[in-house]
Structure formats: C-alpha cells, structure tokens
Design brief:
Blueprint (H helix, E strand, L loop, with lengths): L1 H19 L2 H12 L6 H29 L11
Amino acid sequence: MHNEEETKELLALQKRLMDERDMIGWLCTVHRNKVTYPNNPRATKTIQDQLNRASNLISLAYVWALLEEAGFNEHNKWIS
C-alpha cells in the first residue's frame, strides 16, 4: 500500500511540474520581446540574452523548490 500512495504522490508531482514547466519561460519571453532599443540593437540583444539566462536560472530554482517540498533533497537517492 505504501508504494501505491508514493506512486500517486510522485505522479501528482510530475503532473505539477509538467503543467507549470512553461510558466517561467512564457513570462520571461513576454518581457524579452518587449525589450527593444531601435537605435541600439546590441543593447536589445544583450538584455534579451540576459532574460533567456534568467529564465533558466529561475526555472532551476523553481523545480528544486517543488522537489524539496515533495521531500527530495541532496541526501535523497533521487537527487545526486
């Protein structure tokens, strides 16, 4: 019975991660596309690239927080 309950919890976590995985990317993409300096394309590219990197870092922190909330941590066999 324990395995069945744990499986349900893990499937719920997987669904949550899948449902929310694009949220941060979408948010950053919306802001990324709003950044334009018509007279300075280099500045536009620099800031847009920074937003791409920020999206990746925010996503990592978000996923880690969800996993930690579900009981995973650096000592757990599921996370090396």
